[in-house]
Design goal:
- The protein contains 20 helices and 11 strands.
- The chain folds into 2 domains: 158 residues, no CATH class; 321 residues, SGNH hydrolase (Rossmann fold, 3-Layer(aba) Sandwich), CATH 3.40.50.1110.
- Helix content is 50%, strand content 9%.
- The protein starts with a helix and ends with a helix.
- The protein is an alpha/beta fold.
- The strands form 4 sheets. Strands 6-5-7-10-11 form a 5-stranded parallel beta sheet, sandwiched between helices.
Length: 518
């Protein structure tokens, strides 16, 4: 019986180690990223019909639901269209899908609401799919979008479409790619059947530890540029104009979009969404420092997409100027702070620009009534959290300073409060510094930076505890040999917390980092 308890003790220890690592990695942001996408042999992937998915980060908490046809729409939105309804179909990627905002704040819903206030009888359908590039959007329009018999098709573009239009794989999924040297119809007909990548391993799909190991052992999932800095390859269009970066295939996809729209008797319209660095001066400066290349120009891919669409004979919406004006030189946020997608405010500005373009005579013509003025929250409606946070910090300082002074009266009141204040300032600076890094750096780089900092702190803690580790190991071994497996989680937790507190008390340099972890 004792042997069985010893085996249980070892298994519980391994399970506890796994849980600690799993929880730590999830806190660092390595949580497996859930998706509603499923493999499609023609398009690479499509949204799973009749499913629900919650996306939760520090910036947004959104639930996405699809109907039986795989759209982020009500079940009542079907292929049949009433005779007196003008149907607008929007195709695009995550900006159109709106995976960072609730459904009422998506581009399609905001556009529909605005146009109805003008007296139009319209139906705007959300055909966006996360991760799609222009070629996939055109192929989806040709195979599925045509069934909705739209009067107008709005194609949304963003700068990362350029790179991925020139690739036959996106992360783990294969994807179609239109040949830039072929005529549009021939390029569309030449798309073949894609190989099924199969399911991700269960551990990689559901565990942060498995997700991390899969990324490390399988190599980087995002292609990188050659050079002194590890930059994503899709950023190449910000620093150069080279057909090898997907421009040739992008031009082919735009020509194909015009052909497909005309074949389905729909009027094609293109909207190019600017990057945050084009609208927000702070984001522009941060990105310029990160890329550190004199050729960097955030407007370069935007101009290229606009020119390519016009060269294909398409009408293009250029909302950059309107977004800069609405952003009030960075005083009003149109994008999320860390995520690079537009928020609900930015989507309202984009919807207004699309509505204005649709009022042109070659599309729907002027509306029966004038649209109401665009209502955007002012900067004053988003007060800073600084006063509240400062009040909390001062309260903590007074409480801890008083406790410290009473515990160590020989230190004196002034020194006690100064020591506690210095520690609190160090913790605040660490948190602010890590927050600044995660807002400037791409998510995948920020994760590694924060991981290295924490691993460094833990490594230093092990060094300070090196004399006590044998004693801690002997205590742990005693419980294992006795088969007291049910006590191991409590023991490990006490040893871990106690060890970190001992290190914090021993090293004034490590103390702020350890208290930040707590």
């Amino acid at each position: 019986m004792n042997r069985i308890n010893q085996i249980l003790a070892v298994l519980v220890s391994l399970l506890f180690v796994f849980l600690v690592l799993e929880g730590g990695l999830r806190l660092l942001g390595f949580t497996p990223r859930r998706t509603m996408n499923q493999f499609d042999q023609k398009l690479g992937w499509t949204k799973t019909p009749s499913t629900s998915l919650r996306r939760h980060t520090g910036e947004f908490d959104v639930t996405l639901r699809t109907n039986s046809r795989g759209l982020r729409e009500d079940e009542s939105v079907g292929y049949d269209k009433a005779k007196d309804v003008t149907r607008i179909l929007m195709v695009g990627d995550s900006f159109t899908l709106g995976y960072t905002v609730e459904r009422p704040d998506t581009l399609s819903q905001l556009l529909a609401a605005r146009m109805r206030t003008e007296g139009r009888n319209v139906e705007v359908i959300n055909g966006g799919t996360e991760g799609y590039s222009t070629d996939q959007e055109v192929l989806w329009l040709m195979s599925e979008g045509v069934k909705y018999r739209p009067d107008v098709v709005v194609l949304q573009m963003y700068e990362n479409d350029i790179y991925w239009n020139g690739r036959d794989r996106y992360l783990r999924y294969p994807k179609p790619m239109l040949k830039g040297e072929l005529p549009p119809r021939a390029a569309l007909e030449g798309v073949g059947v894609l190989p099924d990548p199969g399911q991700e391993p269960w551990l990689e799909r559901n565990s942060a530890l498995g997700n991390l190991l899969g990324g490390v052992l399988g190599g980087p999932t995002v292609p990188m540029l050659d050079g002194p800095r590890p930059l994503p390859a899709e950023w190449a269009v910000r620093i150069r104009d080279d057909d090898a970066d997907g421009w040739k295939e992008t031009r082919a996809a735009l020509k194909a979009f015009k052909v497909v729209a005309e074949d389905m008797n729909a009027k094609p319209l293109v909207v190019v969404i600017p990057d945050k660095a084009q609208v927000d001066p702070a984001a522009r400066a941060a990105m310029a420092n990160l890329i550190a290349d004199p050729a960097y120009d955030p407007d370069r891919p935007y101009r290229g997409m606009v020119d390519a669409a016009k060269a294909a004979g398409l009408t293009v919406i250029e909302p950059k100027a309107a977004m800069v004006a609405a952003g009030e030189n960075g005083q009003r946020q149109l994008y999320f702070e860390r995520d690079w997608h537009t928020n609900a405010v930015g989507n309202r500005v984009l919807a207004k620009e699309i509505d204005a373009a649709l009022a042109a005579p070659e599309f729907l013509g002027p509306p029966p009534h004038a649209a109401p003025p665009l209502a955007l929250p002012s900067s004053a409606e988003h007060p800073s959290n600084l006063p509240r946070n400062l009040a909390i910090a001062v309260a903590i300082w007074l409480i801890l300073g008083t406790l410290y002074a009473r515990r160590f009266p020989n230190e004196g009141a002034a020194r006690s409060y100064a020591s506690v204040g210095a520690l609190i300032c160090a913790v605040v600076l660490i948190i602010a510094g890590m927050g600044l890094l995660t807002s400037i750096l791409p998510v995948w780089i920020a994760r590694w930076v924060s991981s290295l900092v924490i691993l460094g702190v833990l490594g230093a803690a092990v060094w300070y505890l090196r004399a006590r580790i044998p004693v801690m190991g002997e205590l742990f071994g005693t419980f294992v040999r006795r088969g007291q497996w049910y006590m191991l989680p409590v023991l490990v937790g006490l040893l871990s917390l106690g060890g970190l507190l001992v290190v914090a008390a021993s090293s004034p340099w490590l103390a702020p980092f350890i208290y930040t972890l707590f």
